[in-house]
Design brief:
Chain lengths: 171, 204
């Protein structure tokens, strides 16, 4: 009888987990999986609390408008090919100060890392038109359109020790 | 007359005794069959469907358990089920739903077959060896179809869209492995049934 109850509890627990959560705390292991899911099924994540580490990244559109994003780099085909880099993340919306990006396109961990808490308030993506890159230089003849969700920041903290974080994430 | 009757009864009792003694030896078959069924169940952990890149290895994959629990819960887009949400369900929705239904049914049949094998071993009732044989055959067929459906995802948008038509990418499935073990379980049950019938012919 005890074993049956334990089994039933285990099934219920799994079902609860499987039914989804209202809070997503992303780790190095889950960052790419969850972020990819968010890009493909944004409506599922609207209103949910998110907490994750990322580095700040500045995107400038063809009109000169700048968007500050919270991203990590990833391989082509999974994230957004944002001209020079392939990144996955969000446009950041915050009333306060967001630390300036540093070495955003560099192939190392030296960047402006931040710990963010907040929500995705809308499943609507913002289309940002940027110039493409060709052979390492801006190609003003080619325009790419990147669609990003917006992340509403509730709290932001700069991370000073980012040695355990990876700027590049894979599946 | 009385002596003949007594002799006939003694002969019949002897035959019955030999039959039962030989019958007892057959109990090893449902036990072995149960082991194969347990292995088949454990092997739901293998890659049911995967995208393989010749230069990179396995890019994304879903196990039989991922498919089973995604289908049972109906939550194909949750991150709890590996890469089910993306790319499999997003780019091959109908295939995933079909695969989910087949995986559930196959798992139920494997479990029922296992139960039948255990009951056969304990009770020694021949009916349960026959049901084990049927269950083994049905689960083999279902798992074979799961394998086929998984491979047919190559016709979905996964390769041309998600993989951008990269010729190095292909769809792979290992659902054939638990299918083989279900077939082994069926084979063992068949062997038992054949041997039982031989015993019956010999002693009855």
């Amino acid at each position: 009888m005890k074993r049956i109850i334990t089994f039933i509890l285990a099934v219920c627990t799994f079902t609860l987990v499987a039914c989804g959560s209202n809070r997503y705390v992303l780790t190095e292991k889950t960052f790419f999986l969850v972020m990819t899911n968010v890009q493909y099924y944004p409506e599922q994540y609207v209103g949910k609390d998110f907490e994750y580490d990322c580095f700040t990244y500045s995107l400038k559109d063809i009109g000169g408008r700048e968007y500050t994003c919270g991203v990590r780099k990833c391989s082509a085909g999974y994230g957004c090919t944002c001209g020079q880099d392939t990144i996955i993340g969000f446009i950041l919306d915050y009333d306060g100060y967001i630390p300036e990006p540093v070495n955003q396109s560099g192939e190392d961990n030296f960047k402006t890392w931040v710990h963010l808490k907040g929500k995705i308030s809308s499943a609507n993506k913002t289309d940002i038109k940027i110039y493409a890159y060709k052979d390492g230089n801006v190609d003003y003849n080619t325009v790419e359109t990147i669609s990003f969700l917006t992340f509403d920041i509730e709290t932001i903290e700069k991370i000073n020790d980012y040695s355990q974080l990876s700027f590049y994430v894979t599946k | 007359m009385a002596n003949k009757k007594t002799r006939d009864e003694r002969i019949k009792a002897e035959k019955e005794k030999k039959f039962n003694a030989s019958r007892k030896k057959l109990v090893v078959f449902p036990i072995v069959g149960a082991v194969f069924s347990v292995i088949a169940l454990i092997l739901y952990s293998v890659k049911w469907a995967a995208v393989y890149n010749d230069g990179y290895g396995y890019e994304v994959q879903i196990s039989g358990f991922n498919v089973l629990f995604a289908a049972l819960s109906g939550k194909y887009t949750e991150t709890a089920f590996g890469n089910m949400a993306v790319p499999f369900y997003y780019y091959a929705k109908n295939y995933c739903v079909t695969l989910g239904v087949l995986t559930i049914i196959s798992a139920v049949v494997v479990v029922l077959t296992l139960a039948s094998q255990i009951i056969a071993a304990i009770t020694k009732k021949q009916l349960f060896n026959v049901t084990s044989l049927v269950g083994g055959c049905v689960s083999f067929a279902l798992l074979l179809v799961c394998f086929s459906v998984a491979l047919s995802m190559k016709n979905s948008d996964i390769l041309p869209v998600y993989c951008s038509g990269n010729p190095a990418c292909s769809i792979r499935s290992y659902a054939i492995i638990p299918a083989v073990f279900s077939l082994c379980a069926a084979g063992v049950a068949l062997f038992e049934v054949i041997n039982y019938e031989k015993l019956v012919k010999e002693y009855k």
